[in-house]
Amino acid sequence: xxxxxxxxxxxxxxxxxxxxxxxxxxxxxxxxxxxxxxxxxxxxxxxxxxxxxxxxxxxxxxxxxxxxxxxxxxxxxxxxxxxxxxxxxxxxxxxxxxxxxxxxxxxxxxxxxxxxxxxxxxxxxxxxxxxxxxxxxxxxxxxxxxxxxxxxxxxxxxxxxxxxxxxxxxxxxxxxxxxxxxxxxxxxxxxxxxxxxxxxxxxxxxxxxxxxxxxxxxxxxxxxxxxxxxxxxxxxxxxxxxxxxxxxxxxxxxxxxxxxxxxxxxxxxxxxxxxxxxxxxxxxxxxxxxxxxxxxxxxxxxxxxxxxxxxxxxxxxxxxxxxxxxxxxxxxxxxxxxxxxxxxx
Length: 345
Prior knowledge:
about 350 residues, alpha/beta, 9 helices
């Protein structure tokens, strides 16, 4: 039977191996030092990225030709895109939720991107690190770094003269509102869809999430993940489950830990928000439920704020049976706040 000293040696070796594996995992997931797009954007190689503009009646552009996306490099290493509207009058920065990707909203998500283009709103977007066409370990997204990417993208949009709007879904809603809290200038409005603003964790569980983010950042949190039961539309649910660019694994510890931290820090600052805000949340959503959106809107001091709870709606609102209603609310809200002609800010 091994002696106590031999057991200590074995324990030391195992601890050393664990530390080495932890360090390798950390190093393997460091971003590229160049900060340039390093993967195929799909804008030329994937036909599903082309926004077809036919069939958007009663629009005046319903017979116009398709609009291709172009690469948009924000300089941080994530993969970005832009769809330029004909006769543009505003731009919108689209931020999808965790594990989702921007180009999906060309032909899914109620065809949000073609409808925005049809309204003269150019769409800019990037896939978060570790999702969609961006590099990085799948699902291992630090929410704080994601916010930094969002702020960088917004700074790049200052180089163009049109009014800027932002839209964020789910955890992308938390990213969007955190970005706006850091800088509300040069922004004409913010739209949040089912935003994950309240993570609903006790003090002990918050500590667990932060510890997991440090020790095993890229591993999934047990019992999380997947895109099941996020829409009441069977065909839309099938497409989400079968989409190879969607991340179907569990929520990573680094996402959970960083998200919990940002969520908690933000609540004391929501009274600072002065920009126009539209929040839409499904009444039957449980990831998260609409209580956080209600509390958020109650705190916001902007004189232009709207909360719409969609009866029976689930988390993927634009893919839900209520998708057409949600899309119309977004377009109407934007139409009321976007200049009728191209003007400088």
